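Notes from the 1:1 (GR / supervisor)

We went over the backlog. Supervisor wanted to see one worked example end to end before approving the batch request, so GR pasted a single chain during the call. The sequence is below; no edits were made to it. Supervisor asked that the structure be written out right there so they could see what the output format looks like.
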Amino acid sequence: QVQLVESGGGLVQAGGSLRLSCAASVNIFTLNKMAWYRQVPGKRRELVAHINVLGYTYYPDASNDRFTISRDTAKNTAYLQMNSLKPEDTAVYYCAADLKSTGARYWGQGTQVSVSS
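Structure output shown during the call:
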């Protein structure tokens, strides 16, 4: 069982920044990857970025250089730094992690990010 606790969401003006944190209850090296997704009402949850066990990162939207995923292995925590936020970034952001031993995916509870214009 893996528990993921997100923090760092909130309300910010357009152009501002936020850093989301996702603390895992297990050693980060037991996870194949950690990822950030986001979801707005009525739409599918979409991948924002992931970082794998070797520390390699992936962004499905290569043109989005405003977001950066990183991790602190000593704290078993992944981060999502979001800069130059836009109103369209408003969503619930979820952390996800895949456990190596079982392949099971775990989700955090989500954190609301709201960007005002």
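Supervisor's comment: The first strand starts at residue 4 and ends at 7.
Batch request approved.
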